[in-house]
Here is the input.
Amino acid sequence: MATPPAQAVRLRLVFDNQRILRRSLRESGLRRCWLLLPPELSTVSDLAAHIAARFRLRRSCPSCVILSIDGFVLPPFESTCIFRDNDIIRQQFAHTTILAD
Here is the structure.
């Protein structure tokens, strides 16, 4: 398993649907904010859980922390080494999709 970046990585976080944020967070302008990637987080799943905890998303949207960069979903098992300073990560709603053969 890859180790997380040793150097601080700043991420720009955008919530696609601001309604999942508490009113106080929306009024503070946190729909679009900076987030420092904690060095102890080693996977995208760890970061998603961190975002859910920091922004108190568990009640409003317990499984909605799906992250993407440039329109591409980040797999939860991917290492946080994928992130570069100033990346824009988006939080999206999880959608249920039925795939046809």
Summary: Strands lie at 10-15, 32-36, 66-69, 72-73, 87-92. The radius of gyration is 14 Å. Residues 10-92 form a domain with the Ubiquitin-like (UB roll) fold (CATH 3.10.20.30). The longest strand covers residues 10-15.
